[in-house]
What we know:
Blueprint: E1 4-10, H1 16-27, E2 32-38, H2 40-50, H3 54-58, E3 63-65, E4 83-89, H4 91-98, H5 105-116, E5 120-124, H6 131-143, E6 146-147, H7 161-175, H8 190-193
Family: Belongs to the UbiX/PAD1 family.
InterPro entries: Flavin_trans-like, Flavoprotein, UbiX-like
GO molecular function, one term: flavin prenyltransferase activity
Amino acid sequence: MSPRTVVVAITGATGAVYGVRMLELLADRPDVEVHLVLSKAGAVTLRHECGLSPEELGKLAAVRHRPGEIGASIASGSFPVDAMLVAPCSVKTLSAIAHSYTDDLVSRAADVCLKEGRPLVLMVRETPLHVGHLRAMTAAAEAGAIIAPPVPAFYPHPVSVDELVEHTVRRALARAGLRDLAPEPWRGDLARRS
Length: 194
C-alpha cells in the first residue's frame, strides 16, 4: 500500500509550535509522506517562537517546497494528496483561501484540496475576531474547508503547554483523516455515573 500524502503548511500567525508538533508526530511514520510549505512570514515566526530554522524544520518532512514554488507537485489536482493542514493559519492565508486568491503555494495547494474535495484543516490563529474574519471563515467553510482554531481543551486536565499543544494537534490530525493519531476520547463523566 502506498503511503498517504499529507501537506503541512505553516504560516506567519503565532503558534508555529502547532505545525512543528504536527511534523514531529508524522516524521517517522512510513505510512505518511509529508510535504511541507513554510511561508515567508511563517519562517520568521518559527525562528522567533521555536528557535528553529527552516532547514532544521525541513528535516521533519519528506518533501519541502518553497512558498513561491507554484509549479510544485502539490499545486496540481493530478497529484494525489490525502489531506492538508495549515497550522497555524494566519488571517491573510485564510482570506486568500476563502477567496481563491492563489498567489503562493500555501493558498494554491489549499485551493487544489478544496476543488478536489480533499480534507483541508485550517487552524486559524487570531483573536479577537471581527466580522471580516468571521466572513472569511464562513466562506472557507462553505467551500469545504474545516475551520479548527487551536482552542485548548481542559477536560483531559493538562498540566503543561506541551500537553495542550499535543491534544490540539492530535484533534486536527484526526479530523484530517489520521484517526489513529486522535487523542484519548472523552468517555463521559465517570464521576456522575458511579
